[in-house]
């Protein structure tokens, strides 16, 4: 059984069809890079996987559980699916430690001392253990995003979704976040990442998915798909983002 | 036009004033606590509740905010006994004031809730938090922080508005002033003194709220 299975997913906002029959499977341990123009539906597809976006057709399944089934306990499902957002979305009134330990404590019932140790462990992974007492507004964008990754890791998810996590960063801060991503990838995490960093996708992803007009236009092994695009749309897109 | 101020008799009745002050203070504090709870619960219902619940809260808020406090007070103290619900003056005062402050608090806190970006809620949802946990741990603090000035102003206004409860013979500061006035006939002096007492009380409340803000919210 695949970890993630999208079948013919249709998503509309009113008259506007954002996803028009998207099918995709992700195996455990895979790293999928999703690329495409803005408005092509890539972020929307990602947000369907953890049920943040209700869909109008098709099915989304995670680990055999149908995400879009109204009977599904989304809270339980989301404990296994981490997501990191473009704009970090840290809780501004909570310290780095509390940002990380909130969900383990109140959702999983992890005792305070253990939660603190957990926070230290995930912060070590993202190289920010010295910032454990800091508040989000005392951190740079890159640091905030690394904390957001740590917060997500603290729930020990089976799948992580990354939604253009470097797009809101100053160029000189992108590198530190990508480095952390690589580290997470190396540990065998299953990842789906929407990204504009083509070089990074080529280096880290097993598979690349190119979305265009609400559809998966082209997909395949990263090097091959990016190296020799089959469709003129992907070719045009690549030449636009690479120059 | 000269007036010869004579505060001696008025000062002599200080015990009445103190007693009245105590009730005013008690009414204010209890009402603020209840009003805040109504505000937090009502605002959540108004913003995140089911459509029927939103409507009920909206009707409550608009009814209260568009009728005079004294009418609400009379309805509870003089009206409800006809329906078999009888309260003593202090209880009726507390109920009326709480219902009144609750409605204003809902409106203020609602504005705070609506200013919380949707992305904060999504972050909470994505971590597996329940709606109640999101409200409690993610939303309330920033929302109250944002609305704290408006909320504390409303609370001070409420304290001043407690003076209407003298109309149903609750023995607050203003009621005691009338008693002293009828004994001493020193109207000007009595009301100057009472005005000063309300002024001091209001300033103390503002000071306390500023302290709470500094202590609880300003750091974060």
Q: Mind sketching the topology for me?
A:
The complex is a heterodimer of chains A (243) and B (220).
Chain A: E1 4-13, E2 16-26, E3 31-36, H1 42-49, E4 57-62, E5 65-66, H2 74-78, E6 81-84, H3 96-108, H4 112-125, H5 141-153, E7 159-163, H6 171-186, E8 190-194, H7 198-204, E9 207-212, E10 215-221, H8 222-227, H9 232-242
Parallel strand pairs in A: 3-8, 3-9, 6-7, 7-8
Antiparallel strand pairs in A: 1-2, 1-4, 4-5, 9-10
Helix pairs in contact in A: 3-4, 3-5, 4-5, 5-6
Chain B: H1 8-12, H2 14-48, H3 51-65, H4 69-79, H5 89-114, H6 118-126, H7 131-161, H8 173-184, H9 187-218
Please explain how this structure is put together.
The complex is a heterodimer of chains A (243) and B (220). Chain A has 243 residues and is an alpha/beta fold. Chain A is built from nine helices and ten strands. Chain A has a six-stranded mixed beta sheet, with helices on both faces. In chain A, strand 7, helix 6 (171-186) and strand 8 (190-194) form a beta-alpha-beta unit. The longest helix of chain A has 16 residues, at 171-186. The relative contact order of chain A is 0.17. With 220 residues, chain B is mostly helical. Chain B has one domain: MetI-like fold (Orthogonal Bundle). Helix content of chain B is 80%, strand content 0%. Chain B is built from nine helices and no strands. In chain B, helix 2 (14-48) runs antiparallel to helix 3 (51-65). Chain B is elongated, with a radius of gyration of 21 Å. The model of chain B has no long low-confidence stretch (mean pLDDT 94). Classes of the chains: A alpha/beta (243), B mainly alpha (220). At the A-B interface, helix 2, strand 6 and helix 3 of A face helix 6 and helix 7 of B.
